Structure formats: structure tokens, C-alpha cells
């Protein structure tokens, strides 16, 4: 960058200083990705063990004895195991909403660091994974958002661990209401039969990491895993930013 370019950049930063997406304070050089201050990033609530052995939520109370949460006892998900580094509240909730609904796909690189750090900290068995697959959007919603947030996250994870990403085989062929608008029982009905696998041979006998942004009730991930299992997948793990 030349002297004049640096001068122009300096003037822009003075007139239009970059602000933290969360607290709206002026960012310093040591911000995270140039969009959130270190103080706000430090407030992201992390999930800590013990984890539910199915959905990956932090266990409390009655679930501790059997290492499984009451929700997974009542409604056993179709995936083998899910993992999430964060609790879906506060700062991470705001960042995911900015990422997902406000076309800020550039946030994906920094947010995916949370996934990569979690995988390394807890030594998740990435060596057995043969495909990384993002939970797909329906083509109508893809046109609305212009990108698939799960695909952005999955791409960074696949690149970090040198695993192939498969984006065009698992598809969402039926348009559904946004899950956030529905009660738990309605989410299961809403998402049912909305996925399909186009080429089963690519899935048969494979161990798959299914990636999405959030696991709430787990209905979407469970339905996608069910379709992958019916197509012959051996193991389906789920990885999301938060639950």
C-alpha cells in the first residue's frame, strides 16, 4: 500500500471508523476479523463438559447419570453425535444472526475458528471423516440469502482438516417454513421429507460430518442425518457453532 493509499485509508477510518458489531464501539487494531472487539469476543459463552453423548449440549441435573440429556431420551436423534462449541445466547447469537440474515458472509472465516478450535481442543475424530457436508438450503431461500451459511462454515472446516466437501448431493427439495418460527413438535413435521440424496453411491459406507450454524431442537440435523443414513452412510456426526 502506497503512502497516498494509506493516507486515504487513514482519513476514511477517521471519518467512518469501524465499529464493533456487538457493542458499537470503535474497533482497535487487535479486533477479531475487523468486526468485533476483543472484549465482546471474550463474552461468547462456551459449552463445557460434560456433554450429552448424543446432541452435545452441556449436561446438567438428571442427565449427568447417563451422559444423555432428557430431550435425547425422549426423541432419539438420527445422527450419531453432535458437537457445538458455544451456547446460543448473547454475543454468538447476535453474530450468527448478522452472518445468516444480513448477508455478512465474511463473518464465516472468524466464526469457523470457533469450530476448528473446539475440534482440536476435544480431539474430535476428524481422521475418520470422509465427507464434510453442509446442511443445504432450498433454492428459494438460497436466492433470498445469496449464500448458504452452513456451506461457508463447512468449507473452512474442510480446508483446515484436508477433507473433501460434498455440496451438491444432499439437497433440500421441499420448501419449508423457517424453523425459528415454530414450536418443537411443529419443527419435526415441518422438516420431514424435505431432504434427499441424489447420488447414493457417494454416501454408501462413508463417515460424514454434517455442518450447520445452530442446533436448537435438532430436528433439521436429525432429518438430514436420517436421509444420509438411509442412503447408506455409516456414521453421521453433526457440528454446529451453537446449541
Task: Compose a concise summary of this entry.
This protein has 243 residues and is an alpha/beta fold. The chain is built from nine helices and six strands.
Q: Show unreliable segments.
A: 7-11
> For the report, how would you describe the main beta sheet?
4 strands, parallel
Count of the domains: 2
Straight-line N-to-C gap: 42 Å
- β-strand number: 6
Known CATH architecture of the largest domain: 3-Layer(aba) Sandwich
How would you describe the overall organization of this protein?
- By secondary structure, the protein is of the alpha/beta class.
- It has two domains: 1-42, no CATH class; 44-242, Rossmann fold (3-Layer(aba) Sandwich).
- The protein has nine helices and six strands.
- It has helices spanning 3-15, 38-41, 70-74, 90-101, 107-121, 139-145, 149-160, 184-191, 219-230, and strands at 81-83, 131-134, 170-172, 195-197, 207-214, 235-242.
- The radius of gyration is 19 Å and the shape is globular.
- The N and C termini lie far apart (42 Å).
Defining traits:
about 240 residues; alpha/beta; Rossmann fold
Question: Which secondary structure elements does this structure contain, and how are they paired or packed?
Answer:
Elements: H1 3-15, H2 38-41, H3 70-74, E1 81-83, H4 90-101, H5 107-121, E2 131-134, H6 139-145, H7 149-160, E3 170-172, H8 184-191, E4 195-197, E5 207-214, H9 219-230, E6 235-242
Parallel strand pairs: 1-6, 2-5, 5-6
Antiparallel strand pairs: 3-4
